[in-house]
Design brief:
Blueprint: E1 4-7, H1 23-35, H2 39-42, E2 45-47, E3 53-55, H3 57-65, E4 70-75, H4 81-90, H5 100-106, H6 109-114, H7 152-165, H8 169-181
Parallel strand pairs: 2-4
Antiparallel strand pairs: 1-4, 2-3
Helix pairs in contact: 1-3, 7-8
Length: about 180
């Protein structure tokens, strides 16, 4: 891999990039670059022959706003349009999952949030105040419901964990409660 330093003005944002970034995350990205610019050398932008970004659109935008004149890149030469599209998607996929227990117990969760990590809601210092105040809603059969709200990615992860415990969510909760009582 040949890392080159090129003028920021030579690099073109990818207009077909399907990713976006919230203002809050963009602020954290800029802060991250300011605090740890050495990381850019280990994770340069990936561009094609025409200097269009395949990996690092948000970093390019942040670097421009921060006034960088030169930035590290790696050129992906000879790739087909299909390979370029595949890279754009795969470069942004998270194939792994976080071990939330390790993160909660062995990492500074404040720093994790500052670094841009979306932490599950149970990392907040909130309590159960008010949780028991309202009566639980009931379904058509008169069964009470407990409704917990999570971001989509976290919800999927929780469902997967529950499926490893039991075949139904209710059974999984009973198993967790019985383990807690022990």
């Amino acid at each position: 891999m040949n890392i080159e330093y090129v003028k920021t003005s030579e690099i073109k944002e990818n207009g077909e990039n399907p990713r976006y970034i919230s203002e809050d995350k963009f602020t954290k990205l800029k802060k991250s670059i300011k605090e740890f610019p050495e990381m850019l050398e280990k994770r340069p932008l990936i561009v094609d022959e025409e200097m269009i970004v395949l990996g690092g659109n948000m970093r390019l935008k942040a670097l421009k706003e921060l006034g960088y004149k030169e930035i590290p890149i790696i050129r992906a030469l000879g790739w087909s349009e299909e390979q370029k599209k595949e890279f754009i998607i795969k470069d942004n996929l998270g194939f792994g999952s976080w071990d939330w227990d390790i993160l909660a117990n062995e990492w500074d969760t404040t720093k994790l949030g500052e670094w841009g990590m979306d932490l599950p809601s149970y990392f907040d210092d909130t309590s159960l105040d008010g949780f028991f105040d309202d009566p639980a809603p009931q379904d058509e059969a008169g069964l009470n419901k407990i409704i917990l709200e999570y971001p989509e990615e976290e919800c999927i992860e929780i469902k997967e964990m529950l499926l490893h415990l039991a075949s139904t969510p209710e059974e999984a909760v009973r198993i967790l409660l019985s383990k807690h009582k022990q």
